[in-house]
Amino acid sequence: MIIGGGASAVSTLAHLAGDPGVERITFVAPTPIGLGTAFGTTDPLLLCNTSVDVTSLVADGRSDFLDYLAARGHPVHRADFAPRYLVGQYCRERYTELCARARAAGTKVTHIRERSVGVERSRDGYRVLLAGGAVVTGTDILLCVGADVPKLPDEVRAHRGDPRLIESPYPAGRLRRLPADARVLTLGTKLSAIDSALVLCSTGRRTTVLTSPSGTLPAVRTALCRDDRAAFDRAAWSALDPDDASFDRRLARMLVRAVRAHRRSAGSERPRLGGDATRLLDHERRLAAEDRTAWQEIVAELIDTLNTHVPRWSPAARARVLARYRGLMSRYISAIPLRNARLLARHLAQGRLRVADAYPERIERAADGWTVHWPGGATETFDYVVNAAGYRVAPVSCTGTGLRIGGPDTGPGPEVLADLRLRLPHRRSPERIWAVGASAGGRYPIVNYLRAAAQHAAVVAGQLTSGTPATPQRSAARPGPRPTIHRSAA
Ligand SMILES: Cc1cc2nc3c(=O)[nH]c(=O)nc-3n(C[C@H](O)[C@H](O)[C@H](O)COP(=O)(O)OP(=O)(O)OC[C@H]3O[C@@H](n4cnc5c(N)ncnc54)[C@H](O)[C@@H]3O)c2cc1C
């Protein structure tokens, strides 16, 4: 049973289809398979912030997404940032092909268009509970539910359901339909907030203001690609002790050394965490245009390395270190494409867009919109508030007999083991339930990334089809031979 229907679910199918040992694969998802939150958008303006090279349903080998695009006549390079709707089309088409491959090997594939609300242990496997009250059974459960619940900041939570509060920037068509003279406040300054700004400003809207507690935009890059040269020494990473007082110094030294040893481009600057957002964007846009962003060349391997080593740390060390580096990771690991930075800079220069240097103290509902109270006493009125503060996974909590998916966040969640299996409290053996993608975020630090989900899918499929326990990131971030998915795609 695959619960979820986004890219992670299709990647899991890619690793299972064709195996004669799989009797049946059932997808449980309310949406068409392949079209999740980020890649289900139809707006051609919205780009991936990861290059084609790492935006593939199969993590190893040459990018399957690159092959998909090239086979359809797109002039594409592995470093390009493709429009996100093309990733959705890619997932959708591969899903159809993979279903055919699975069926040819004797596997039945079905899709139940419903949301799952829980999983319960039964005598010979699991019962998956559906929102409509029905139950389906399976021996092995894969949680591929993604992070699709918008995080609603405290300032507007009481206004859930208000027509002047747009709780998520997707589908982007909702933003495009706002009146041309609407003044819009967007809560957030990271990826979905930037999407919101690009869509709102592209339709000539007069005032869009982005605001967040950090007040910073992501850094700017020209590619996120794997590299055939190793940037890091595995032994040094294994020896890095998150509880040691010298941790930060040693980590900084390893990162600086990796950037220096690796750089093909003209140079790099010290990382920056803040400052005036508009000036920083202009500066980083220039650096990227002049090919002075050497740091970007180690990011793909850094993500793989973090996902390999951090899960082995104690939960307390993981939480402490990741909290300390959150700002740095969100600016650089989730950097934006130069094209988006140029568009933002143009909208900022033309006065259509502003990045607020503060976060509202209060946001009040007024007669025809909102009154925003800024620190220092100033107030400003807006017609709409768009929430773009990010997404989280629907809460998964343990019940006496299994898991509840969604609903109120009550009770502890299951433990995610290094091999991605879940363990319920008070039970010694892990369940035959696996987390793929965002659901594994309790253990793996970077999961909102298709490459990470594809690595998870390979590991889980390996355990299902051969019984071999494994952990993700067995392979380096380097491109290798062609992925198996391509062979069946004809
Ligand atoms: C704005 C934005 C931009 C992004 N850009 C990139 C990028 O450029 N590159 C990249 O690698 N990653 C990007 N990501 C992260 C990206 O979402 C993941 O890499 C990947 O798409 C996640 O796929 P998924 O299948 O895990 O989740 P999703 O695509 O969110 O799909 C989740 C699926 O699960 C279903 N579902 C949820 N709950 C249930 C339930 N209870 N029962 C049944 N079904 C359920 C949903 O209906 C949906 O079908 C971005 C994310 C965001 C928000």
From TrEMBL:
* Domain of life where this protein originates: Bacteria
One Pfam family named in its UniProt record: NAD_binding_9
InterPro entries, sorted? FAD/NAD-bd_sf, HpyO/CreE_NAD-binding, L-asp_N-monooxygenase_NS-form
Q: Per the database record, which ranges form the FAD-dependent urate hydroxylase HpyO/Asp monooxygenase CreE-like FAD/NAD(P)-binding domain?
A: 2-146
Q: Which residues lie in Polar residues bias regions?
A: 465-474
Which stretches does the entry tag as region Disordered?
465-490
What is this protein's name? FAD-dependent urate hydroxylase HpyO/Asp monooxygenase CreE-like FAD/NAD(P)-binding domain-containing protein
Taxonomic classification: Bacteria, Bacillati, Actinomycetota, Actinomycetes, Kitasatosporales
